[in-house]
């Protein structure tokens, strides 16, 4: 069920993003009087072979346009009359250009048609971030709340000199309000944490290549989290032993437990073994004897006892905050690419495919997380499509800008060749990302 939930969220997000991206091309084509033969969510053929396995799950002809849902769940497309793309080559455009075809229109109109998907994805991203901020606001752990007990340093954090119980006072010499700013600092170069440890102030530099390990989802730091037992999974070791929601775990065998990360670390020692669990319930201590699973779990959700702060926004404020956060995704993407070229992070760890994206959405449905990730992906899709790679919108834009500057229109054969090269590049990247993605999911 958890896997189906992850897949369902990813497919819904991609359907929204791809559908509206293609709508951006469609609407600008219509504005300039260009005929659109097809508008499809997903492909009705075996991409990139337009004449193989041609069938749709649903289709309907309205006017000149056939609207449909393809069977191959990878992207989608609009078939714009008179344009070389993944659905046709130069041989199909041997006739004289017609007034309602893409190739007969001025370069500036064709430019807007190609930018349409990117423009819509940016608008969509801003609208989603606006809505998320207005409905849910920002929930965060404040510096004061986190520093009551300090941070929990996982082995990766210990490697650079951090210790559990450290209180992070400043990031790169500046104060912070939200613990999320501490995590975000790992995306920056030459980051330094100012920490308080046992009454002393220490400077902890962060190596620039640390982000490569963090990108593999190796845990780094978290606020130390006091907790109580939340929802107990049916038929789990916890339920069978009598653990109840609201219990406070205070000991595993003879070892005192005061926060969740400590509990998890201690539980690792007892895979497939029976333990004595001491819990506080109704002012009394109760002993339970569960058997730890092979995954070092008992089967319950932890309820954090950290007090989260919530910043709410009115309609206007939410737009400003949401738009700023949405638009910040693009420069962050550029910085990320820069760090790849500098060797701080490997391309394999920086890019996620469908498996990694599905894992981002999580094993249970959370609308705030769903829309937040969908907004992030919308801005990321806009950025990726703007890259000057043949077959992507950005590749077409480069050719059109060349035409507008030189007043020389490239031949349709040239456009066909660049489309083929671009498609080959994209397919190669897709195969590599999918392989890397699957490898990480199975072996990390």
List keywords for this structure.
single chain; 444 residues; alpha+beta; Pdz3 Domain; 3 domains; four-stranded mixed β-sheet; four-stranded antiparallel β-sheet; 17 strands; elongated
Q: Could you characterize what this model shows?
A:
29% of the residues are buried. The chain is elongated and about 85 Å long. Helices cover 44% and strands 20% of the residues. The chain has a four-stranded mixed β-sheet, covered by helices on one side. The protein has a four-stranded antiparallel β-sheet with strand order 13-12-14-15, covered by helices on one side. Strand 14 and strand 15 form a beta hairpin. The protein has helices spanning 2-31, 107-136, 143-146, 155-159, 180-184, 210-214, 237-241, 260-267, 315-341, 347-350, 354-361, 367-385, 393-406, 412-443, and strands at residues 36-43, 56-62, 65-70, 72-80, 138-140, 151-153, 167-171, 192-197, 200-205, 221-223, 227-232, 248-252, 255-256, 277-281, 284-288, 300-304, 309-311. The mean pLDDT is 87. It is of the alpha+beta class and 444 residues long. It has three domains: 2-133 and 373-443, no CATH class; 143-223, PDZ domain (Pdz3 Domain, Roll), CATH 2.30.42; 227-299, Pdz3 Domain (Roll), CATH 2.30.42.
